[in-house]
Amino acid sequence: MQERQATGGDLAMLRRQNAFGVLQALRASAEPVTLTELASRAGLSRASAEDLAAELTEQGWAVEVPPAPGSVGRPARRYRFRAECGYVLGLDIGAYRVLAALADLGGNVVATARRPVLPETTRDRRLEAVDEVVTDCLTDAGVEAPQVWTTAAGTTGVVGAHGEVTLSGAATDWTGVPLADHLGDRCAGAVLVDNDTRLAALAERRLGAAREAQHSVYVHAGLHTSAALIIGGQVHRGHGGAAGEIGVLPITPWATAADRLARCGAVPAGVPYREAAAHVLGAARAGDAAALSAVDRYASDLALGLATMVATIDPELVVLGGGLAHSADVLLPRLRDRLGPLCVRTPDLRASPLGDDRVALGAIRWAIDHVETTYLARNERPDTDR
Amino acid sequence: MQERQATGGDLAMLRRQNAFGVLQALRASAEPVTLTELASRAGLSRASAEDLAAELTEQGWAVEVPPAPGSVGRPARRYRFRAECGYVLGLDIGAYRVLAALADLGGNVVATARRPVLPETTRDRRLEAVDEVVTDCLTDAGVEAPQVWTTAAGTTGVVGAHGEVTLSGAATDWTGVPLADHLGDRCAGAVLVDNDTRLAALAERRLGAAREAQHSVYVHAGLHTSAALIIGGQVHRGHGGAAGEIGVLPITPWATAADRLARCGAVPAGVPYREAAAHVLGAARAGDAAALSAVDRYASDLALGLATMVATIDPELVVLGGGLAHSADVLLPRLRDRLGPLCVRTPDLRASPLGDDRVALGAIRWAIDHVETTYLARNERPDTDR
C-alpha cells in the first residue's frame, strides 16, 4: 500500500512537539547548547533544530549566546533557555513561620522572605504574613506581580479540592481558610495549594534523597509528625487530599510522639518547648540515659506509624526530614532497628539532604511543572504577562 | 516560517498510530463497526479508515462482516475485531483451589477448569494441578498451546520480581516456588505472575465495582484476609511486590480475624471449618446474639487494618470481595460503622459484583493488556503463533 500524505493538522502538531522537544533540551542543560547538540538531543535534523531555535528565540523562550571562548574554526552557534522570561512563587505556610521564595522558570531562587508566626496566630494575621512575604520577594527582586506566572503554596493541614484548608491540627485558627481564593485575589497567575509535607516530599523526589525512587515515603519529624507519599514518581494526594494522614489513626502514636519526646525527663528547666525535642536528641548523642530512653521510645513511635504506610505501599525508600532530622545520626539507626521487624520488605531509610526551606523548594518545582504543562508545552504565555 | 515536510519516519509512525487507533475502535465495540463510525471514533477521514481496515483485515486483526440485515440503500461495510486470532490464559492458584480460564483476545472466556487443593497440599501436587487445569482448558476449547499468546497467574503469597513466591502464609509448602519459571517451561507465550488479591483488585477496576475510581482498596474477606491497591487507575505492586501486606502488622488483627470468626461460639458442632465463618454471618443475619457479637468483632478487626490503608492512600472506594462478601448485607453496614471514626475522609464501601472467579478474570485482563502493549500496538504477533 502507498504512504498517504499527512494532513496539515498532523504536521502542525508534529512541529509543536518538536519545538517543545528543543525547548526541553535547552531547559535540561545548565550550559548553553550548540545547534548540533540540540539536534541530537531533540532527535531532529540540524536544519530543523536551527529553524526551531530561531523561532523560540523570536518568541522569547530562548536566547542565542556568544560562541564559547577559544573556539577554533567557525564558532558553533549556541542557545540557552531564557529562564528569566517568567517567574514562579513558592510559599511555605506553617504553624511557626511563613516563607516565600521567588524563582525564575529555571528554578533559580532570586529572593526569599520569611515571617515568624505561632500555632495560635489568628487566621487574619497568618494571611497578612503571607501577603507580606510575597510583597517582600517581589520588591527585593524587582519583579512585577504580572511576571509571576504561577504561585504554589504548601500549607499545614488537609487541603481540599478547591485549595481550602479542610482540617488543621497544627495551627489553631486555620481550618476552613479558603487559601487558594485568598492567593488568587493577590496573585496575577495561576494558584496551586497543597499540604506542606506533600510539597516537601516533592522536593525530595526532584532535588533530594528520593530522586531515584519510584515509590517513597517522606516523614516530617519536627514539632509535629506527618508524612507524604510519592507513588509512581508522582506526589500522591489521594481522593480528597488526605493521603498520608497517619497521625489520626488511634493505633499509631504519631499525634503525641514529638510532644512526648519534648516533655521527657532529659530536658533541663529553661529550655524552651520548641527546642526541647532537639535538645533531647543532642543529650542522647552525648550518652544521657534518660534522653536515650526517650529517643528509643520516639523511634518506636515513628516506626509504628511508618510501618502502616510501608505495609500499604511497599516503598523503596523512606526519607526523614524536619527539624529533628538534623539529628539523623542518632535517630536513623534506632528507627531502622524498630522498623525492620514490622516489615515484610524493609525500605531504605535516609536523611533528607535538603535544608529547612524544602517545602518552598517543592512548591517552586510544582509551579514550574505547572508552567511547563500549561504554557511551555503549548508555546503560550499566561494572560498576566503582557 | 514555512511548514516543512514531515520525514518518512514521522509518517510511518503516524500510520502505525492510526492503525492502532482503528484497531482500538474495533476492540472497544461489542458490535461490528461501519467504516463511517470507525473513521469518526478513530479521528480519521473515511478514506484513511477504509485503507487501514483493509490492511488490518489482511493482517488477520480484523474481519469484514456482512451488512446489517434490513439495511436500506447501499449497505454500509462493517468490521469487527478478530478476537479469535489469539488466546490468553488466566490462572488462580490459591490455598484451596487451582483454576484456569482460557479467553480469546476479546476477553471472552471459552473454557475453564479447576482442581481442589488444600493449604497443606505439597508444592509438587499444586504445580501438577496447575498443569492439569491448563491442559484441560486447551483440550476443551480445541486450542493449541502456541495459540496462547500470554499466560497470567495470580497466586497466594508475596511475588518477587522474577515471578517467584517469596513468602506464602496461606499455603504451607509454597514459599520459594519459582512459579514463572514453571509456567514458562509449559507455556508457549509470555508468562506474568502476581499476587492473587492484586489480580482480584484489577478485575474490580476493569469489570467490577471500582471501574470509576482512580484510587481504591480491594479487601479479600475469606478464610484469609488480604488487600490490594489500585492507585491512579493502576494496580500498585510496590517496590518489592509487598504492597497491601497489612496482615503482617502486629497492630492490626488481620492475621487472626477470619479464624476468630470461624471459631466463635455461634458455630454448631459438625459445621466444617471452611464453612464456619460463612455460617456465623448467616446466623447473625437471623439474629443470633453470639453470632452478631462475633461479626461485630470481625468488622472491627477488618476496619482497623483497613483504616491504615485508608489513612495512607485516601482511596475513593473500598471494595469487599472474597467468600464472606456474599454476606455483604450483614458485613458492610457494620464495617462502615467501625471504619468511619478511624478516617479523616471515609471512602465509599461496596460489595464486589464479581463472582468467585475474579482472580482468573483479573489475570485475563492483565494478559490482554500485555498483548495490547506488546503485540497489538506494534502490529506484531508472538513468535509462538506461526
From TrEMBL, chains A, B:
GO terms for molecular function: DNA binding. InterPro entries: ATPase_NBD, ROK, Tscrpt_reg_IclR_N, WH-like_DNA-bd_sf, WH_DNA-bd_sf. Pfam families: HTH_IclR, ROK. Residues 18-64 form the HTH iclR-type domain. One of its GO terms (biological process) is regulation of DNA-templated transcription. Belongs to the ROK (NagC/XylR) family. This is HTH iclR-type domain-containing protein. It comes from Wenjunlia vitaminophila (Streptomyces vitaminophilus). The lineage of its organism: Bacteria, Bacillati, Actinomycetota, Actinomycetes, Kitasatosporales.
